[in-house]
Design a protein that fits this description.
Blueprint (H helix, E strand, L loop, with lengths): L5 H4 L12 H12 L6 E5 L6 H13 L13 H5 L6 E5 L5 H11 L10 E6 L6 H12 L5 E7 L7 H4 L3 E4 L5 H14 L6 H11 L3 H12 L7 H8 L4 H12 L3 H13 L4 H20 L9 H17 L6 H17 L4 H5 L1 H11 L4 H21 L13 H13 L2 H17 L3 H7 L3 E5 L3 E6 L2 H9 L1 H12 L4 E6 H16 L12 H11 L9
Parallel strand pairs: 1-4, 1-5, 2-3, 3-4, 7-8
Antiparallel strand pairs: 6-7
């Protein structure tokens, strides 16, 4: 019985067998074909990505008597004797005698190879060498004999002194893609008659995080039970959470389901789920939802910017979790934070009463919800059509700091009073909850009406950018509001800062006894003309 673990048994023996490092492998093969061998290489990249295996194949190929296309022939005398050759040195810098071995190299380096063309020194985990060992190595790297090739390998390139790096040709090994890992495991499973399904393979690849060695070690372990390896078996043995559960969690955040979020964290913690893998899965699910938003495939109400922020927060947690006593609590707080963001304008009681409440509002305005939306859509279509028919009509929105915005605020001040404002505020709050389109709902959720007359309302948003985004779709909002309250209001959104200026102006005018008077709104064509006049008919195109 000579059991070999899978990753040793299936260690690549040719460049073509190395998975997922095509660019690096091409470079090495080219250097062999063109006989341009450097005297020192440094292979860097995450663990289990094939650095040491590639170093060995390279050492074999440069000594092969009959290389084919840069590959070792695996038939010649040198290839066949490669494993026993005294000209190939493998040093593990992480081991206790690493430093002694480096000293030994230096003592023997001048001696010519016993049988091979090159003496090859493969130094694994080179970043672990002590300063004195590095210094000794540096001397030999400065003027190496022509029969010597160094291959240094490291997962932590930033710990290797720059003086050493500058004397090496650097080759970067990438994390191996999940697809490549799955394909390779599937091939090996077939050969070893391991019964495993594709979902299980994907789950293992996910966990291995770009490292083939880890993936094969897990496959090895699970295959010993001699039962069919399913996704459940993998999740169970690795203490993982399924992608479906992660998707459910995102949906729970979307639906402000606090209980679900809490029980998820509780489950993950009590099952000792691997925290980093959990975070990575979460980030991947968030990323997928964000892409769905951009593709208009997303069913929920979360916004792109929110998802992006959430992903950033969780990924920063991954880096902190090693020094964090209780990363789960942090994750819980992060996730709950996103629920708060979406509920801070809607109290819990309103939420539970929402269904009947909404129905009541709908009934009181004499229409069902569906009708509301249909009418809003129709009105919008009609507006679009009108716009298409009238090619002279250009869109001119009441953007913050534009003349139109100022005129609308001014016109609102003319007839504004407290009763209008109280009514408007109440209607607005309910109207926001009814807004079916997620873009509108998310934009409006933090807004309030700060000024109202019988013809105009002023919407206050937190910052200029939000106000402008609202103003961009203000005609749609006006149409939807009209179909909701059966009255047309001219709306404009201002930022908190802009609103403070308008208030100050109002107080100043009051003190000077200056009255507000209705002003005519400029049309798109007018605004264009105004700008041209300012520039004295110079040929500046204003769009
Ligand atoms: Zn050969």
């Amino acid at each position: 019985m000579n059991y070999k673990v899978l990753y040793r048994k299936y260690r690549p023996s040719t460049f073509n067998d190395v998975v997922g490092q095509n660019r690096t492998i091409e470079l090495l093969k080219d250097s062999i074909i063109n006989n341009k061998i450097s005297h020192a290489y440094i292979f860097t990249g995450p663990r289990g990505t094939g650095k040491t295996s590639t170093a060995k194949i390279f050492a074999k190929a440069i000594n092969c008597l009959d290389p084919v296309d840069g590959e070792p022939c695996n038939k010649c005398e040198n290839c066949l004797n490669f494993g026993q050759s005294s000209d190939i040195y493998e040093i593990d810098a992480a081991s206790n005698n690493g430093v002694d071995q480096v000293r030994e190299i230096i003592d023997n380096i001048k001696l010519t190879p016993a049988n091979f063309k090159y003496k090859v020194y493969i130094i694994d985990e080179v970043h672990m060498l002590s300063t004195s060992a590095f210094n000794a190595l540096l001397l030999t790297l400065e003027e190496p004999p022509s029969h010597v090739v160094f291959i240094l390998a490291t997962t932590d390139i930033e710990d290797v002194p720059i003086t050493v790096l500058s004397r090496c040709q650097r080759l970067d090994f990438q994390k191996i893609s999940n697809k490549d890992i799955v394909d390779n495991m599937r091939k090996i499973a077939k050969e070893e008659t391991i019964d495993i399904d594709d979902d299980a393979l994907t789950e293992i690849a996910d966990f291995a995080d770009g490292g083939m060695r880890d993936a094969l070690s897990i496959l090895d372990q699970l295959s010993k039970n001699k039962v069919k390896i399913t996704q459940e078996v993998v999740l169970d043995s690795l203490g993982l959470i399924s992608n479906k559960e992660i998707d459910d969690l995102i949906a729970a955040i979307d639906n402000n389901n606090v209980d679900k979020v809490l029980s998820f964290i509780d489950f993950a913690q009590s099952h000792s789920t691997d925290f980093k893998t959990l975070c990575k899965k979460l980030i991947r699910a968030i990323e997928k939802a964000a892409v769905d938003i951009k593709l208009n495939n997303y069913k929920g109400t979360l916004e792109y910017a929110t998802l992006k922020e959430m992903a950033f927060e969780i990924s920063s947690l991954i880096y902190k979790c090693n020094v964090n006593i209780d990363p789960y609590t942090n994750l819980e707080l992060i996730l709950l934070g996103y629920i708060d963001k979406f509920t801070k304008n809607i109290s819990r009681e309103m939420k539970t009463a929402e269904k009947s409440d909404v129905q009541e509002i709908a009934n009181s305005s004499g229409k069902s919800l569906e009708n509301d939306v249909k009418i809003a859509t129709k009105t919008k279509e009609a507006a679009d059509d009108a716009q298409k028919n009238d090619s002279n009509t250009e869109k001119y929105f009441p953007k913050v700091n534009t003349e139109l915005c100022a005129i609308r605020v001014n016109n609102c001040f003319v007839n504004a009073n407290k009763t209008f404002l109280i009514d408007a505020k109440e209607v607005w709050e309910k109207f926001i909850k009814l807004a079916k389109m997620k873009k509108e709902r998310a934009l409006l959720i933090d807004t309030t009406i700060v000024l109202a007359s019988d013809t105009n309302w002023v919407i206050k948003a937190d910052i200029d950018a939000t106000a402008d985004n609202i103003n961009d779709i203000i005609t749609n909002i006006e149409d939807a509001l009209e179909s909701y309250v059966n009255q047309k209001y001219k709306l404009t959104a201002v930022s908190e800062e802009a609103w403070e200026k308008y208030m100050q102006e109002y107080k100043d005018n009051l003190a000077k006894n200056i009255k507000y008077e209705m002003k005519e709104e400029p049309k798109a064509a007018d605004s264009k003309k105004i700008v041209e006049d300012i520039f004295l008919n110079s040929k500046i195109e204003v769009k």
